[in-house]
Design goal:
139 residues; mainly alpha; Helicase, Ruva Protein, domain 3; 2 domains; 6 helices; 67% helix
Length: 139
């Protein structure tokens, strides 16, 4: 797969925040192509390069700003720093993520979810679940 600027940007972000999508080359190609087209159209419409880049990034990262993995990592960092070192939080988040899906399914997750009232409730539920998981796994 040819890696354009937008493909590389998206792939890098997906590897960090949505590893389950990092291997979806069709998704990455499609979204990168949409972002490149948004940039090109914006320039043709007379927008400045920074404005066009902002529009392209909105297209590239649409519906990807909230990350389940990042939220789990934040819970591990904030609530369990004496149990899980920050350097190992990503590894543990990958282990726990699939087991947390039942909790995530109870919420309408979107790019704006972090600003909603449900975010604090989800954070609390994840904290409790992870606490039990760590206890069950003798950590």
């Amino acid at each position: 797969m040819e890696l354009s600027y937008y493909r590389l940007s998206l792939l890098s972000y997906l590897k960090e925040s949505h590893p389950n999508l990092a291997g979806d080359s069709d998704f990455i190609k499609s979204r990168a192509d949409e972002a490149a087209e948004a940039y090109s159209d914006a320039i043709k419409d007379g927008m400045s390069h920074p404005e066009a880049e902002e529009l392209a990034n909105l297209t590239l990262f649409k519906d990807l700003l909230f990350s389940k993995q990042d939220m789990i990592i934040n819970v591990l960092w904030n609530e369990f720093p004496n149990i899980i070192p920050q350097s190992e939080a990503k590894e543990y988040a990958l282990k726990i993520l699939s087991q947390c899906e039942i909790i995530f399914l109870q919420y309408m997750l979107s790019d704006e979810f972090i600003y909603s009232a449900g975010y604090d409730k989800l954070y609390t539920e994840l904290t409790g679940f992870i606490d039990l998981w760590l206890h069950d796994n003798e950590l």
